[in-house]
Amino acid sequence: MIIQWCVKGIHLPGDDEARQLIADGDGLHCNWWRKVHQIRPVEVRDKLTPANIDRHVNHFEENDPTTGIPFSENSPFISLSAGTVERDVLAATNLVHRARKTALWFGTQFGRRDVAYLYTCWVILAPRTAVGIEGVAEEVRDLNAYRRYSAYQTEGEVAAKIIVPDNQISHCEKWELRGGNRKKFVKVWTQHNPRFTPPEILTNVRELI
Question: What are the backbone angles phi and psi of residue 38, rounded to the nearest 5°?
C-alpha cells in the first residue's frame, strides 16, 4: 500500500462554511452521500464498480442512463488532486501539473470565482486497481493501472471512495486571487485540524508475534 498526500479544492459560500467543515469532524463526503444523507453498506458495494469509476473520471456531468440525472450528483467517489507529469513527445520534455494548481482551478469553479478553499489530506492507495475495496483510493492518474485514454489524466486525480475520514484531513487553506493585471493566488489563512492523525503511523510493518 502507498500513502498519498492530496489536495481537495472546494468552492464554498464563505469562511464560516469552510471552517465548519473542519470543526464538524465529519470528513469529506462524496456527492452521493451528501444527497441521500444516509447510506447502507450493501448500497456502497453496488456503487463501487469499474463502470462508475469510468463515469466519474470521464463522464462526470453526463446524465446517467439508469437515472437520467448527471452522474456527478450520485457519484460515490471524491476527486482529489495529487499532481502528475505529462510527457510532451514533440518537445522532448516532461510537463509537471502540480496538485495545488489543479485544486485551485476546481476550487474557483474553473476560474469563475476569486476564492477557493483547499483541504490537504492523505489517503491509502492500492498498487493496482481495486475499485470494489472501499478503504483504498484509486490512482486514476497512473497510466500503468488505468490504461484507457482519458482527456482528464493531466488533472492528476486520485479518487477516494465514499468519505475521506476527518482524522486524515490535515488542514484547510483559504486562497484568494489578488492583484491588478497580473493577478496571483495568495494564501489568506490556514485552519488546522486538531484531530489529525499523521500518516507516519502506518509506515512501519509489524511482523507476526
Answer: -145, 130
CA dihedral (197, 97, 101, 54) positive or negative: negative
| Residues 80-110 pLDDT 10s | 999 998 888 888 898 889 999 999 999 998 8
Residue in the block written with cell 444527497: 35
Arch. (CATH architecture) of 2-202: Alpha-Beta Complex (3.90)
Beta strand pairing status for 157-161 and 184-192? Answer: unpaired
202 vs 93 pLDDT, higher one: 93
What is the value of pTM for the model shown?
0.91
At 15-40, the pLDDT tens digits run 999 999 999 999 999 999 999 999 99
How remote is the C-alpha of 124 from its chain's centroid? Answer: 12
Residue 141 near residue 79, CB atoms below 8 Å:
no
Contact 136, 1 (CB under 8 A): yes
Is residue 91 within 8 Å of 82, Cβ to Cβ? no
- Listed residue (106, 105, 104, 108) closest to 78, CA to CA: 106
Residues in the chain: 209
Among candidates 33, 40, 30, which has minimal Cα distance to 10?
30
Enumerate the H helices of 59-112 as residue ranges.
99-107
- Asked if residues 159 and 53 have their Cβ atoms less than 8 Å apart, the reply is yes
8 A C-beta contact, residue 156 and residue 164? no
Asked whether the predicted pLDDT for residue 205 surpasses 80, the reply is: no
Q: How far apart are CA 14 and CA 209, in angstroms?
A: 51
